[in-house]
## 1
Amino acid sequence: MSLQFDHETLGQRVLFGSGEAAQNLAAEISRLDAKNVMVVAGDFELPMARQVAADIDVKVWHSNVVMHVPIETAEEARSVAKENDIDVVVCVGGGSTTGLAKAIAMTTALPIIAVPTTYAGSEATNVWGLTEAARKTTGVDNKVLPVTVIYDSALTMSLPVEMSVASGLNGLAHCIDSLWGPKADPINAAMAAEGIRALSAGLPKIVADAQDVDGRDEALYGAYLAAVSFASAGSGLHHKICHVLGGTFNLPHAQTHATVLPYVLAFNAPYAPQAEQRAAAAFGSATALEGLQQLRAQVGAPQRLSDYGFTAAGIPEAVEIILEKVPANNPRTVTEENLTALLTTALNGDDPATLN
Ligand code: NAD
């Protein structure tokens, strides 16, 4: 087998340990010799952030976190960082909170220590997102990649099961989409496959018992691998679709990913045999779709886009915008007709197998 690829590995320190976040954060603050620390955490995440920061001096707490990072909140947080002569930003929370810390780093180049509490995976990517005049823009900049990620599954115990499932399937979508993303390569695929294995092992344990440490650890570990493979492979068809559904139709991020994933998998799989086999093996099932559908049934995954406010009236506009963004190397040619069928099937929660 001849191999030829161009892979970039992003440099980041990862500290993983259940119940260890406070200790690991104090050690990192000392290693970075940080004096003026800003902690970013949404109102709901603030109590967790106070626990995590129990052993460090915090100069300023900042909790004005809004999903999809409106530019006004980014500018406010940047001013707070400047006024307080901040030298490190610590973010404790989900992807929205990490996103605000990234917005600060974009213009200040301040280092971020990320302490994620969902499976969104933003902490392991160099991708930023901002919303200005109701339009979400994203970009890639190594300045926004957190220097350190501190994973502590104890902080995820409070994530409701339903949100854990949606967020974990968002992680799984990173894995699957990276198998055919624009810069898919064997290194990404190795991480994505292990991510699929870990997430599909962890999520059923969380559903059975939300406090299961092993399940929570596996899901967090899988979410990290998912994000690393995704950051390297780039956005594939699945992410292009979900980005439009989230950005233009304001659908919730994790639930949208969780719902759309089987449809994109069914759509692309027959045209991407290597990716399909890799995912099937990682699920331990005969086909990738069978593995995903078994897992979805086991964890009670979100079923249809109509449950999240999407309607048939939005399909033509969504199709038009998505068609402009489809990656050139998507395994299957995407047309107005087959994309309309994909979105209609996902809207109604019909059997994805009808797409292949
Ligand atoms: P979120 O950060 O909006 O969190 C969802 C809800 O869960 C919030 O109300 C939050 O307060 C709550 N929550 C978080 N942790 C909790 C916990 N441990 N216990 C109880 N509740 C908790 O949602 P998300 O899915 O984590 O992130 C979505 C955002 O992240 C989107 O804006 C998305 O675009 C972005 N994102 C960016 C990247 C990237 O690489 N840049 C990757 C993935 C997601």
## 2
Amino acid sequence: MQEFIYYAPTKVYFGKGKQREVGEIIKGYGYKKIMLQYGKGSIKKSGLYDEIMASLTASGIEVVEMGGVEPNPKITFVREAVKLAKEEKVEMILAVGGGSVIDSCKYTAAGAASDCNPWDFPTRKSTVTEALPVGCVLTLAAAGSEMSSSAVITNLELNMKRGFNSDFNRCKFAICNPELTYTVDKYQTACGVVDIMAHTMERYFTVCDPTDLTDRIAESLLKSVVDAGKVLMENPCDYEARATVMWASSLSHNDLTGCGRENALAVHQLEHALSGEFDHIAHGAGLAVLFPAWGRYVYRYNIPRFAQFARRVWEVTEADDEKAAVLGIERMAEYFASLGMPVRLRDFGIEGDCMDKLADLCTFGKQRSVKSYVDMDYDVIKAIFESCY
Ligand code: NZQ
Ligand code: ZN
């Protein structure tokens, strides 16, 4: 096990009805004026907006509203939000939504506490040294942003999706009521299941010393999520399955499943190039195509690891390591397909002549390679994209 620092400062309020405590929770921190961000309307349709506003009003919290965050949130929206947050001198930012809303709030929080262009954070031209606090009411179990140190944003002018990590990106609190996810449709639910699994598998497939405990935490999480995902395809209002997936969302990306291991999210780098270029692609759906394609390419560089994954997560009984490794990847691909996820890039309706562009975006114009069991340079990345077209 390698040395590590584990830092998970987010206070989690988990369970039924917890969203109605949001006003009291914020009051407890002493904040009197906040910015509320939400998405394109799901919280109004479900009645959650009214519940949140009632709770905030009852606690005497003044609210500055900024609705309309798009999936794959945009830097243009953040710039407007930063301006408003500064003008109104809000003390904290409350996200009510999924990963897109939370990430938009993280960028707003960092931007509002500095004079930097928020796009300079993911492009490493500026470092975050201060940020307003962010809290969230989670409505979709997927990105893990509620406990992660990451924030991902899209710049449509450049067709680029970029993220950065910072402890300033950690939410102060996360309110997680699994019932709030009952209204998430099958497709987004499946995207969430894939993303949660991907956050765990990315950390599982890194170079490291033996990490038996971390391995087994990751494998258990994966097995639970696989089972819960199957249940949710049949019954979207199964509380226990929603609860399993919601808690797994947080644990899969708060670094728990990576303690003692290298931390590189290789397939995410490929996916961010994909959904950065094609804004209509949901992050989890992109991962559902790319993860098996990446696995088929890299498994030969660490056959024992892929064989362990196959046997422990997918209950493959094949004795030969290489055959087992391949079977594990195929079981994963079949599972994603069984959730209704796309299987090939062409399923997204994109043309096959974009592979150079995607490889270029992913390598920042051939300026970098992506670390995995083998260094993935421009040619390798292009080959992986082509293999799943
Ligand atoms: O906009 P609304 O109307 O709210 O609808 C959303 C959106 O259309 C809908 N939705 C959310 N909660 C719902 C609901 N619909 C019905 N009932 C509910 N309770 O779902 C759609 C997708 O929402 P979005 O927030 O975009 O999904 P997700 O949580 O998967 O977030 C994806 C974003 O997070 C980034 C992705 O790249 C992508 O931009 N990621 C962020 C990470 C992080 N910060 O740690 C890590 C991830 O790897 C990921 O990259
Ligand atoms: Zn992800």
## 3
Amino acid sequence: MATHFKIGAAIEPDSIDSPADAALLGAQFSSLTAENKMKPGEIGVAEGQYNFGPADKIVAFAQAHGIAVRGHTLVWYFSSGDWSEAPAWFFAGDPKDPHYRDVVAARLARYVTDVVTHFRGKVYAWDVVNETISDDPHQVYREDSPWYRALGKDYIAIALRAARAADPSAKLYINEYSTDDPVKRAKLLSVIRDLRGQGVPIDGVGHQMHISIDWPPMSHIKQAFDDVAALGLENQVTELDVSFYSDPGECWHNPHACLPDLGNPVPDDVMRAQAERYGAVFDLFEHEPSIKAVTLWGYSDKHTWLTSTPVPRTNLPLLFDANLKPKAALWTIVDSSWRP
Ligand code: GLA
């Protein structure tokens, strides 16, 4: 495998309960991310009260195996039903109160400070903010975020500054999806320029890269890395998986617009296309020195968000199958000397 970037996987604490899974993770990966357990909805129980236990378990495993940990994520807007990654306690109070803004800003700074301090020296890079850019053509920032509603764009700078102060040696990333889309990327780059103009610390861009076997085009992916590198920033691929389905965007709002389930067994030509796609993107990564880590959003096809989201259906997007056996996709990315 390539040597100039770390290879990571997102895991849950129970991923390491099985000796076979733990052995695979310990042997094959050089970086780990908590799939969910470092998110604010998990850690931020109440103001000044934290649930670090599940994330600590992952960090302890990584440390015992000499594996680096990237932190994901300190600030996110997302909520759905009972699930909120922007817990209500951050925003308690009356927005009309003249002190409201300062109170929310102080809660945010305290949260980031306490979490980064807890993991100081153990987490080498943080996705400080996740998904701050809007998909709405009339907006740059995601204005429906409770963070934006309370603090405007300043929440991003507050979080980055607090993270740098709490652990000056951790790399600070802004993490985003669809960075391959030129319109979205232009917004992201303008936000980064604005932050740097204010002297806000930022080291790199995390590209989620939830891609599919035939979307987006390779040239668009490459352009995203090149544009970030041209600003003198690092790139990391933070959530790579290769879905079978290239759904229209509408599928995220209307399940009927999603492509139909391929069923099981998945046709051979689809598995072959996936293997080729993995080969192609890793070939690109190897030629991009600005890429410091490539993290897969999982490790085995037995556990992936893509079998439930955006709709329940067969999907096998990772490099090891449900029995932890290497897939054809894996053999396209390892050095030929490792091939059977
Ligand atoms: C986004 C988030 C990740 C994860 C995935 C879906 O990409 O950044 O943390 O929740 O969605 O699982």
## 4
Amino acid sequence: MTVTTSIHGMWSTRLAFILAATGSAVGLGNIWRFPYTAGEYGGGAFVLVYLACVATIGIPIMMAEIMLGRRGRQSPINTMRTLVSQGGHSPVWQLLGWMGILSGFLILSFYSVIAGWTLAYVFRAGSGIFDAIDATRAGAIFADLTSDPERLLAWHTIFMVLVVLVVARGVASGLEKAVRYLMPALFFLLLVMVLYAAQAGDFGGAMTYLFAPDFAEFQGKADEAILSAMGQAFFSLSLGMGAIMIYGSYLKQEASIARNTVIVAGMDTLVALLAGLAIFPIVFANGLAPDSGPGLIFQTLPIAFGEMPGGGLFGTLFFVLLVFAAWTSAISLLEPLVAWLVENLGFSRVRASVLGGLTVWLLGIACLLSLNLWADVRVFGKGFLDLFDFVTANVLLPLGGVLIAVFSGWLLARSSSLDELRMGDGLSYRLWRLLIRFVAPVAVSIVLLNAIGVLKLIGLG
Ligand code: TRP
């Protein structure tokens, strides 16, 4: 028997799923994380590897996640339990769901801190302190914020309250509406930023930097750069932790998974590239370093807003929309856990959301303290914020992705995926199956193993 609805509610229309999944995918990952990570690894070559990962690993895995979610119609843990028992496979596969919950906690805890920076910048942009600002001053304003644990805590708390509020109300109400208007608005503003950067900044330099790959740029850090490009693809597409799986579980039976996936992944990639094109012209025109790290957009965009006419208003609007983009992403990080608490422990949505939110909030405090009071506390050479970011994007999400790929390609019956994807037994289905069975698991495993030096140890790297 196929279950055709979820107890947690359903997307009201097909468009609602696209909006929600895009809302999950497009967020700080595109506008904050993509530019600074690309900058850390020298630009073009990183971007090229990133795009290749989206096309050959990201898209097939996104289709697989949506497919599994829609077949299971529950939280990722219980979806896996159902699919595993239907196929007579080992219960070990539920680990996938548990790993996803862990990733969700870790990601959301630092994500909320960065979203807090964004919230703080809404008010900075409005106050006029960016007027005619230079790079040094922009850096000082940013450092001033990150060195103050109390302010960081206040913004982190406000953001987590916002997330819990929406998750507590349920996916269909609120979330759908927010995405429908705010995502197009963000997209429009980003376009305006690119146009501004094109005439005020070093646009040619930025184009070359981002789109003329030169592998010498990796400067002996190729293993790490490729790992980070792959990790960025997982992070940006919201893959490998069950967020897209649970969104798929609210998707109507007749919707085309392949088409939806291509639209969502396409928009996500476009937004990331536009963010790069808005930021790097300003970076180069002002003599800033592309590899200045997580503060990159907070140190460059204020310069643009400070110079352009109406920059105060425009900057405020931009950061407001970025907060919304972060909000619609953060929701999807909490949803798998909340759905599980409701299903298994019989919690109300409200109680589940508050409990999940509190846990994340506590973890987030460790992240924000790692920027100041706990700057000396290092685990594997990193502070908590960097550590959570690195471990989730570059290890847990790809690992989750491999498991999803192997399960969908090797354990789930061919007839089941054929039936669920509803794309006919033609070229596209066969291509998907090839990518999900061989390309994605092998490529991800090689990158992961290579990064931990295993291949070197056994003499292959
Ligand atoms: N993709 C989001 C962004 O780019 C972040 C995000 C939301 C995410 N849900 C996720 C990342 C699930 C990994 C897994 O901002």
